[in-house]
Amino acid sequence: MLDVRSVTKRFGGLVAVSDVSLTVPEGSITGLIGPNGAGKTTLFTLISGFQVPTAGEVLFRGEDITGRAPERLAVMGIARTFQIVQPFAGLSVAENIAVGAYLRHAGRAEAMARAEAVAAMVGLADLDRPASSLTVAGRKRLELARALATEPQLLLLDEVLAGLNPSEIRDIIPVIRAIRDAGVTILMIEHVMQAVMSLCEHVHVLANGRLIAAGTPAEVVGNPAVVEAYLGHGAAGRLQKGAANG
Amino acid sequence: MKAYRSLLVVIAALAALPLAVPLLVGAGLFAGPNTFYNLMIFILIITLAAQGWNIAGGYGGQFSFGHAAFFGTGAYVQAVLQTRYGVNAWVALPLAALLGGLVGAAIGTLAFRARLRGSYFALVTLAFAEVFRILANATPITGGAAGTLVPLKIGLGQMQFASSTTFFYLALTFVAAVLLLNRALERSRFGAWLVAVRENEDAARALGVDTLKVKLKAITLSAAITAVAGALYTQKFLYIDANIAYGAWISVEALLAPIVGGIGTVLGPFIGAVALIGLGEAAKTAIHAVFGSAVPGVDLVVYGVLLIVVIAFAPRGLLGLFGKFDLFARFGIFGKRGGR
Ligand SMILES: Nc1ncnc2c1ncn2[C@@H]1O[C@H](COP(=O)(O)OP(=O)(O)O)[C@@H](O)[C@H]1O
Ligand SMILES: [Mg+2]
Q1: Domain that holds residue A142
Q2: How much is the average pLDDT of B174-198?
Q3: Average pLDDT of chain A?
Q4: Mean pLDDT over residues B104-112, rounded?
């Protein structure tokens, strides 16, 4: 469904994303993990059209969409959430979601009905209150609901679980699975390994802008290069020694 | 229909206002009926200009400091078409709206394509209005510095009326129509997208909103409405020059009225225009009574004070203040800011 081909993004001297290639099969939940500053969010901005790659191309259903504007990609069926949530603070929860729903439903009644259905699906209640009054968990759900209201085929989730407590995470994991089961392909950036292990079929690992590993969550977690990327040089060896000794 | 009921009540109350004129004059509030009607007509014209501003500025968050560019275009088109080309006043008016809208679209295209936002957008609109003012002052077709005088010729066909009550109703018709249009806009997809652009452009784009297109539509509609206000001004006063038509005064009124009344609300522009112009007139009268002569600029002082008071104590405008009272909230007289 999504094909990222040798994509590179430079910011002046900094190479935030370096020659990254990956594919997201239709109907999958694919994970993108890596330490902070690895370039994960930047890769999302390249896929979703907010920034243009320095080199490489992005294909969606075989069509070259490199550099296409985000609003056009949304029409094509690509939706994203923002790591730093971006609610329409002056609007109610329902109105926030309706903005997304209006993409496929021009009439107010249908858009509002669609917004309510999506809100129910992600577990948001009390839709008439201002979005600014939501808790962190509520805002994350709102971010998810708005993107979902555009009825995407591909959903890009940027750390929707960050900042949630363990019980909130437990609550939202089935929601994400249900979205996939409803036919939406998902590419998710996630730090919460519990969620990655339980949701993703396939995981790509980014460090310093480069893909350093890919595979099932279990394979990737056992990969020494991945452990070192997270914990520093030589960490994998130390861990293994620790395990052998203990 | 429920969403429109409160507006219809307000419109009916305004339409019934002439019934109260004898009382107001009797109470000594106005020197005579005409004093009252002239003030009300002026308030309605400013309201209309402000309603236009409120669409791009209030709902869309694109703060223009140069709505004089649209007001003046409407005023001049209305005057010049009649005096130089013999066009009928009723035909000239929609053309004034059209040309005003085109000027809005042109300025919007230049400013929004260049991704101007916030104070940069405000400054560019201000600059355009100033350029128009200087040009209108210098070109023969507008009458140059001497201005343009529309000959007095009372008659329905000329949109000139013997009774100021008639002009009051004409102005009220436009204001009422835009009130209803505004409510419809709030409840439409375009309105939702416009408010989304104001709140967060990146989030709006991610949801498929073509922000450039939305902003262009908004500034075009905004400009066309403000241009109608200019055309009505021409019809009411039958004289315009560059400082009236393209002067900073109208840019200021058009943006202050919604800010004072309640930005991004349907009734905000009207409430603000009443407060600004009403208080300005009251201050003028009071000063005259005390000093025995007029003190120029006293209304500007009143505007400044009112603006400071509103920003300090009612950042959502006078309507936001009223909204705190149960009575108004219960009957939903005043909508809330944004997308209802
Ligand atoms: N617009 C930008 N301009 C300059 N540097 C940027 C920009 N966006 C991201 N970066 C840099 O790119 C690197 C990757 O950032 P990011 O993609 O946010 O990482 P991640 O999401 O994996 O934590 C960081 O060093 C960040 O500072
Ligand atoms: Mg990130």
Answers
A1: 2-245
A2: 96
A3: 91
A4: 96
> Which chain A residue lies closest to B185 (C-alpha atoms)?
A108
Question: DSSP string of B16-69?
Answer: THHHHHHHHHHTTSSSSHHHHHHHHHHHHHHHHHHHHHIIIIIIT----S-THH
- Nearest to residue A44, comparing CAs of A79, A72, A95? A79
Where do runs of H (alpha helix) occur along B187-316?
Answer: 189-199, 201-206, 211-237, 242-245, 248-261, 268-291, 298-313
Distance, in Å, from the CA atom of B319 to the CA atom of B324, rounded to the nearest integer, reads 9
Fold of B2-331: ABC transporter involved in vitamin B12 uptake, BtuC (1.10.3470)
pLDDT of residue A103: 97
Dist CA B179 CA B267 (whole Å): 7
Q: Does B189 touch chain A (CB under 8 A)?
A: yes
- On the question of pLDDT at A180 being above 90, the answer is yes
Give CA–CA dist B144/B136, Å, rounded.
6
Note whether A90 contacts B199, CB cutoff 8 Å.
Answer: yes
Q: What is the mean pLDDT of chain B?
A: 90
pLDDT score of A246: 47
pLDDT tens-digit readout, A25-40:
999 999 999 999 999 9
**A146–B338 C-beta distance less than 8 A:** no
What is the structure's pLDDT at B339? 39
Q: Can you give the CATH number for the domain in which A75 is found?
A: 3.40.50.300
Chain B residues touching residue A100 (CB < 8 angstroms): 207-208
Q: What count of other Cβ atoms lies within 10 Å of the Cβ of residue A1? A: 19
Domain spans of chain B, in order of start: 2-331
Instruction: Name chain B contacts of A106, Cβ cutoff 8 Å.
Output: 189
For ligand 1, what atom is nearest to the CA of residue A43? 17
- pLDDT of A238 above 70: no
What is the number of domains present in chain A? 1
Q: How far apart are CA A73 and CA B46, in angstroms?
A: 42
